[in-house]
Amino acid sequence: MADGFDEFVVSRGHLLLRFAYLLAGDRHLAHDLVQEVLVRAHRRWDHIERLDVPEAYLRKAILREYLSWRRRRSSTEIVVADPPDRAAGIDPADRAADRDEMWSLLVTLPRMQRAVLVLRYYEDLPDGEIAGLVGCSAGTVRVHAFRALARLRASLVETSTPSEANHA
Fold this sequence. Notes:
The protein is mainly alpha-helical. The protein is 74% helix and 0% strand.
C-alpha cells in the first residue's frame, strides 16, 4: 500500500499542489489542503488506487476541502504572487504587475465562481465535468463563469480608468 501511495505522491503530487494553489491563491493554504486530503487518502489508498483515475478523485477531494466552510480564511489576508519567470522579450516588471493584478482580482470572487474559473481555464475541464465536481448543473456552472468573468471585466475597467486619466 505505502509504495503505491508514495510513488503516486512523488510523481503526481506537484500537480495536485498546483491545482490547490490555483484554487486557494496561497502557497501555505495549498499545502494544507493537499496535506489534509493526502492524509485521508492514505488510509483508503487501496480503494482509491483501484479507481480508473485516482488523481481525479484526489482533485475532487481538494476542491471539496477548498469549498468547505471550515476552510474560510480571514478576509484581511493578502495574497502575494511569486516573482514571475523571466522570458525573452517580456518586461518582467510588466508581467509581475499583470500577474499580481489578476491574483488580486481573483481573490475577490466568491469561492464557487473562483473554483469554476480555475477548473475551466486552468484545468481545461468542460462544463459537465465541472458540474460533477462542484455538485451543480452545467447551466449553473455557466452562470457562475459568466458572473465571475463579468465581475473581473468590471474590476479591470475600474482599475484601468484612473491610471488612464493620469496619463492623459
